[in-house]
Amino acid sequence: MSVVDAREAVARAHRAEWARVVATLTRRFGDLDVAEEAAAEAFATAVERWPSDGVPPSPGAWLTTTATRKAIDRLRRESKRDDKHKEARLVHDDDPPEPAGALEDERLRLIFTCCHPALALDSRVALTLRLVGGLTVPEIARAFLVQETAMGRRITRAKAKIKAARIPYRVPSAADLPARVSGVLTVLFLVFNEGYLATGPGTDPVRQDLTAEAIRLTRLLRALLPEDGEVAGLLALMLLTEARRAARVSPGGDLIALDEQDRGTWDAALIAEGHRLVRERLATGQAPGRYQILAAINAVHTSARDFRDTDWSQIVALYDQLVRLDPSPVVALNRAIAVAELEGPAVGLAAVDGLGDKLAGYHPYHATRAELLRRLDRVDESRAAYDKAIELAGNTAETAHLTRRRDQLG
């Protein structure tokens, strides 16, 4: 096997098995640092050995076994302390199995255990994205719109707090699940978003592995909490967004905007399932949460056979509801885009410009300004806004799209 083939096999295994390996080691050793470092060492060993030994029949089992040995070696090196001796005993095959809890999936269990209420929400999300989603620190930093160094410190502090406070890694009971759902949904949403439009310049523009994993875990969460409206809303949002994946990137690697997409390539089955979930939630008569409103917005978009048929008044009304729940500048920006379609680009631009102080480093803000300025024939200002958006964008497909739009100005 060539080195290139082996590295590709390791990359595939990382996408498929990283979270499972980390989850298994976390459960057995009770230490996130041990689990993460041992998993990383196992993948590094695979890079060294698979070119000559070949890819094992079961890469996940090979990686878990190798990581477990790495963890044992580390614990033995530190075995002068009694607590490390106790941890090392956990690897014995004759130990009693852990009692079954409410969560049977290792990766979903790891999400819940990382999202412990003792941690700040941002720390829970960042830590879980790293350990479960397999995202790198730069990817997580871009998802949070913060500097990479700051995100690295946030993750380090979260691990330190877990260790210092002796926060247990246990399967939540059924009674504990509702209180822990909010942080978990945020994690799944951000993992899906990273797959929907990957931020790394060297990655594929759409990472189906991440979107598929986020959908799979959200389906499992819905099976556990079938009456939770926000779980259903998030699943509907993911399905309606994933349905458009085939139409979002051109054969040349250029991102295709919603108004230019071939709607005939959208996945009708996913759209039907997403619409059904939205209707079910509306039928309950309960006040919708953030994810349910976002799903309803996407349901309006996917109900239109043509972009020109979009019911923008309904979308603006839904954003009005969302702003009351989530008055963030990003939500305000998306509402302004809908307002521009309903009331014209001048009205939309006025709303967008009011967000400049809060979104100066957010490339969709500059891309939105560029498009609205373009529609107003303010060519020089539009070009400058495109330049800024291109400078800040990390995704290659999005950069290609913005460059094409800018160059069309002449």
TrEMBL record:
Q: Does the keyword Transcription apply?
A: yes
Query: Which residue intervals define the domain DUF6596 in the entry?
Result: 180-280
Q: What is this protein called?
A: RNA polymerase sigma-70 factor (ECF subfamily)
Biological source species: Amycolatopsis thermophila
Q: Is Transcription there in the keyword field?
A: yes
Annotated TM spans: none
Bias (Basic and acidic residues) ranges: 75-94
List, for all copies, the residue spans of the domain called RNA polymerase sigma factor 70 region 4 type: 111-162
Stated family:
Belongs to the sigma-70 factor family. ECF subfamily.
